[in-house]
Write a structure and sequence with these properties.
The protein has 106 residues and is of the alpha+beta class. It contains three helices and three strands.
Length: 106
């Protein structure tokens, strides 16, 4: 038997950054990435951005270039911060949930 926990309706959540701050991701579609901030052990930082709604080819180039940087500087990186387009994620999550609920007639 499935148990559902009552939670705040999606449209009532004001601060999606707080929601996503509590989420651990193993995979993040590059489509949602706005920028990556690479923080080095020596205190330097690099900010790498991607234009919103970039074509798939540009997104793949961004991803490939980022992986090359991470591989090359792996021993010098302290931590990485990723800024995601939370409004786009929210829109896509809401759309997927509504679609799923229609399929199961809830």
């Amino acid at each position: 038997m499935m148990h559902f926990q009552k939670s705040t309706p999606l449209e009532e959540i004001d601060d999606w950054d707080k929601v996503f701050n509590e989420v651990t991701l193993n995979v993040l579609p590059v489509d949602y990435v706005q920028k990556v901030l690479i923080n080095f052990k020596d205190g330097k930082s690099w900010e790498i951005g991607i234009a919103p709604k970039s074509p798939r080819k540009k997104l793949n180039e961004f991803k490939d270039g980022l992986f090359e940087i991470l591989d090359a500087y792996e021993d010098h990186i302290d931590h990485i911060d990723v800024k995601i387009d939370t409004s786009r994620v929210r829109k896509d999550v809401e759309k997927s949930i509504k679609k799923m609920l229609r399929k199961i007639n809830l």
